[in-house]
Amino acid sequence: MKVSDGSKEVVCRERKLSSESRTSSESFSFLRRSNSSRSLLDDILSSSSSTSVKKNLKSVKKMAPFLNYKDLGESIGAITYPYSMAPWVPNLLEVDNSGIKLDSDLERVMGVMREGVVLKKVTRKKQREYMFKLEKNKYITWKDGLKKLNLDSIKSIRPGELGSNYREEYNVDASYSKYWVTIIYKVSNKLKALHVIARDESDYNVFCSLVFGLVRTRRELMESLAVPDHDKFADIHWNRALSRNPDEKAEEVLGFEDVRQMCQRFHIYCSAGYLRRFFDAADTNNSGTLSFEEFQVFVKLLKARKEIDDVWQEAVGLHEDKLTFDTFYKFLTEIQRERMDEDEARHLYERYETAGGGINKQGFEKYLTTSPYMLPNNEDYSRPMNQYYIASSHNTYLTGKQIGGAPSVEGYIQALQQGCRSVEIDMWDGESSPVVCHGVLTSALPLSSVTQIIRKYAFITSPYPLIISMEVRCNSKNQRIAASIFKDTFGDLLYTCEDRSELPSPLELRHRILLKIKKTKTVIGDCHSDKSMNVVVSSSSSSRSSYDESTAMTKTGSRIRRLSFSKRQVAIVDELYELAGLRGVKFRNFSLPESKTLYHCFSLDERRLDKMLGDAQVAAAVDKHNRRHMMRVYPHALRYRSTNFEDPVRFWRLGVQMVATNWQTNDVGHQLNVAMFQLNTRNQQQMPSGYVLKPGWLARPPSKRRRERCGAVLRVTFEVISAQLLPNLSESTETKSQAASIGAAETEDPYYTQVTCEMFSCGSTVEKSSKCHENGFSPVWRSALSQDVRRDEYPFVFVRVVVRRCEEVVATTCVRVCQLREGYRHIPLCSPDGEQYVFSTLFVRYRVTV
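Now predict its structure.
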């Protein structure tokens, strides 16, 4: 099966590079990183209390990127941040202390890989050697070219011990670790893994150098598009274009077809007529070709942003060519609504000031493209845990559909590294030990493998407590084994219920793990006998099934029983239950004593909770309960495609702390979830904590809310002005654009882009769409959307933007507007899979008036 372009990724691993591997090869020299990047890392190192984060960040400072633009292949993919890329190291590739000696001569390595290197491919069932080759400088191929991996689809590279969990799962001897490489990539929105073992150190270093080097270099080339330095872009692409046309090299000119092909290779998808207008304007001598100086003019015209010219005129006035400090400060306070004094503004002004004084238009554009779009995170983490919303995952172990979907540790890695603070473990009986699976004839993972992965990634992104929601469906013997696994793996990190008057705060529970376990009171059948062991869906699942006598093989070689539909319970043994940090309780009503115990947590599926909310008195009781105690809501079991509820906001408005979504599905529900917890603010060096404090009125007694509901009405206006550097995702779109650009008759403009803006508020949604023709690369729409909201409902207003090209979704973004800075802002765009593009942005203006 061939790997489609799908979602594209660069690679970043936060692991230590030993000094031995840095100095052992004289041919490898690292380039220095910028002082600003080092300052950022130094700041984080000094403020972070997490040993693991400090250790990873210290190693980052030892690394530098490849900078080699030679011979890069036919096209560059739609590059996105990998989920493993921490927000504070956005520009680095990294390896661990696995002994890799990366070769700085990337061109030589590429030559070796074109001829091929023999590697052993490892799967669960077999190990077999193949010739791995580099094809078109974009694909790694094997099996005589029948299988291929697109370099731009890579999400993570795990050499050596970083891939040990897979090596151990496949029963590969530890002696092969030093030549082991795992590559995580994506095909059709599904995570896949390629595991290979090199024959010797030479082949190992060649393969790693190629993958690390090419991924980095391809990203550097795309970055030259994003930076406002037109001359740098022109110089790089001029030399590349000439090298592809040796017949014209002597003349050192480029024709229109050369320029058009260059634009298509780098996702500049515009109509031939659109490009021709710029080409003719730059061709000052009307020769039909461009010299280097004329090509520089063409690049300047192509990258010019008329919409920023309008903002510039608004800021500077009609008859000025530079911003003085006074006019800049006025723009900051009146248009951008920044709350800063003159000293802070002066410091910002000097950052963009020219040598001759004042800020010119290029400096102003740089300010607009680099200024933060989110308000700073000044969250108070000292309140009881029930006063926070918690980023929560449902069926974390799945990377696809519920039925037939294979469980994978990648689900935990992805969720934890994106800031998730509540994951789910569905624990069943394996042949000799507990396993994690979905139960419906799916494969399984050893519980020990899952806990090790959770321990490894639990606090890399956020130091605040991690809740593991347990679904216990195994017999007492395996429950005791599970208890031993939890204690051995998590040790002192486990928090168990203590005698206190209110729940502990996230600040108190930094770097702690809480198991949420439901205690059942009755047992039907012999808990010590696998054959008579029956299980029921516990508090976090709707009615699924229990074991019968037939069995199915798991991926780990153990057996689990097929499911029959019954509702029988398994007793939770004391050894496991005493480890609970939250106690799952079956909901009956809010007046029973168990509904008032401190550590209890109700778990309800969306349908049951929606039914309860249909009764006004019950809805008020839910609201009142959640001001002091915990509740979790999750998607109904009939969502077998792992879709999410379309409106999680309705649950947040009632104070539900854990609104669990299927993180593997980037639908509207999960996009709202991402926006609530600011999980995609990578370019602002903000680490998502996974905890968001509720609005004040949801923490006070309900009777006090009535007065606040009569507060001021706010007018929220969100204007989508333009998008920048939109990628091309499908070959079909590229084929259409190629046909149109060479003059093929088209009844439909293949370059038009449509933007749809949706504003979610108080259970209602308003929507507006606009189109831009000819320009599918940096379209301008100027489409505004407004809505009136009450002040107390303002924290629950979200804006979602979807960009389509030829009906295909190209990019999306979703923001919680109360976290958005006012004024003109650039917001990062995400792929349809939800991964943030490295360069693509949305230029907006946001305003709030009373």
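The chain has five domains: 8-225, 230-303, 306-370, 385-588+632-677, 705-849.
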